[in-house]
Amino acid sequence: MNDLICQRIEGSAHFRELVEKRQRFAAILSLIMLVIYVGFILLIAFAPAWLGTPLHAGTTVTRGIPLGIGVIVISFLLTGLYVWRANGEYDRLTKCVIEEAKTS
User: Fold this and answer.
1) pTM for the full model?
2) SS3 for 57?
3) Half-sphere CA count of 36, side-chain side, radius 13 A
4) Model confidence over 47-100: pLDDT tens digits?
5) Could you tell me which residues are beta bridge partners of residue 62?
6) CB 63 within 8 A of CB 71
7) CA distances from 66 to 36, 59, 88 (A)
8) Which of left, alpha, beta for 58 (phi over 0: left; psi -120 to 50: alpha)?
9) Which of 72, 76, 79, 86 has a CA-to-CA distance to 36 between 20 and 30 Å?
């Protein structure tokens, strides 16, 4: 019985659409985060003096601090974007796949 359901799901056009969309979107978000993170690490490696420059005269807050916080905030925003899309479009496609498997 379970093998039959799995075959129905794998043969579903909605399932293939779901897999394709999720993989593409996850790859895009991963690539964005990778570029941001590697860029930040490269700044640390090749421009430490620039990152260590204070934002304003007389302050101890350097350019690297808001950039590092920005990397963290962007990772949370990208995660939130994925969750928002997963709870909308991906859940809708998942429901279609389940309904097709039940009725077939």
Assistant:
1) 0.83
2) coil
3) 18
4) 999 999 999 999 999 999 999 999 999 999 999 999 999 999 999 999 988 888
5) 54
6) no
7) 14, 13, 32
8) left
9) 86
